[in-house]
Design goal:
By secondary structure, the chain is α/β, with parallel strands linked by helices. The chain contains eleven helices and eleven strands. The radius of gyration is 21 Å and the shape is globular.
Length: 329
Amino acid sequence: MIMQLLLGSEKDGILCPIPQYPLYSASIAVHGGTMVPYYLDEANGWALEVTELRRQLKLARAEGIKVRALVVINPGNPTGQVLSEENQKDIIRFCKDEHLLLLADEVYQENVFAENKKFFSFKKVSRSMGYGEKDLSLVSFHSISKGYCGECGKRGGYMEVTGLDNDAKEQLYKIASVNLCSNISGQILMSLVMNPPKSGEESYKSFQQERDSILASLGRRAKRFAEALNKLEGVSCNEAEGALHLFPRLHLPERALKAASAIDMPADTFYVRKLLDATGIVMVPGSGFGQAPGTWHIRSTVLPPEKKLPDIISRLSTFHQRFMDEFRK
């Protein structure tokens, strides 16, 4: 809906992170706009640098593109980083100074694993800076399908729109009115996410125990899987600070790169197809999310049950060593 509201021609652009959740590039393309990429810094834990935002904005404007909004995914998908509050303040100042709508994808806000990290909503940070609706246009997105409730199995979500004038909001409501409502189970779960049991209520203790158990298990899985990936030859993986994914980089033998090229297939796709055929393990090639030129990645979730993780790691490790040996010869 927001993309439909913002994009009128290919001269309208949206700043999006690379790597990014493909929903953004796809929806921008569907509505005839232009995606303006900015690259996250893998060497620094997938950091979001405002200098990179300014560089890409300047390049886009030089090409006659009117950049209308900035997409920020926090915690990151597929990269799993969690932004610091100071970094968020810099991003907010950037959007305010450049008159950009800030699109804050915050669907993984419950999933923060790193002990030195904490989630802050962009709305809360902007208000702590003294910015009100007249200072910053912001759309915040949240979902039931992440966190500890849906875990990708249930679908429902909402957006909070602040800082848009009444005429723009009226158009947004018109767009919403031509869509059918979401399924009933999604609506019910959405209401439960927004109004969880409160202290003193009968179900609060069991709710708190189950929630904390799920989140702790996801954190252990993320840490254990990242450690296992970093033990593989030619694989490097940043710590999963949050979200439900890991995005390790592959350093593949030259013969593997040539074999993939010979069948006109990206090297990361070549790897995950071989992995699927050999083990039944499904991972997603990084080329589907965008990546720095000359690099190859794969995306994995941390959703498999904790008790099955040792077997998955074992099968992956065995496959990977055989793959490397085969193409090193």
